[in-house]
Amino acid sequence: MAEVTQQMLEKQVGEFQALQKEYSKAVSSRTTLEAQLKENEMVKKEFDCLKEDSTVYKLIGPVLVKQDRPEAEANVNKRIEYIAGEIKRLETQIKSFEEKQEQKKMEIVKLQTAFEQLKQQ
């Protein structure tokens, strides 16, 4: 009986570690997206400071290419919208991982307690 409990405990610990890895990936992705969002918001503020007849260039590889201002602003706005949506999605995913981790912790504690009791008998 103790061996079965130990195997179940090892399985739960493995699943908990896998959850931790996924959680870390999601947090890292969110951090990257937040940096991109701030960068794009700064670009948007720069557009607000420009005069209507200002020329806008887009960096494509090593070359600056002239771009229509309305098109450039629309692209930045779309990017901001997309990134904000991805951050929201990751927030939901992170919350889910946190809940699952908490459940796994509880299961592990129960199994550890049961295993210790079996060892004492």
UniProtKB/TrEMBL annotation:
The keyword Coiled coil applies. It comes from the Eukaryota. Residues 80-121 form a coiled coil. One of its GO terms (biological process) is chaperone-mediated protein complex assembly. One of its GO terms (molecular function) is protein-folding chaperone binding. SUPFAM superfamilies: Prefoldin (SSF46579). Keywords: Chaperone, Coiled coil. InterPro entries: PFD_beta-like (IPR002777), Prefoldin (IPR009053). The keyword Mitochondrion does not apply. One of its GO terms (cellular component) is cytoplasm. Belongs to the prefoldin subunit beta family. This is Prefoldin subunit 6. It comes from Chytriomyces confervae.
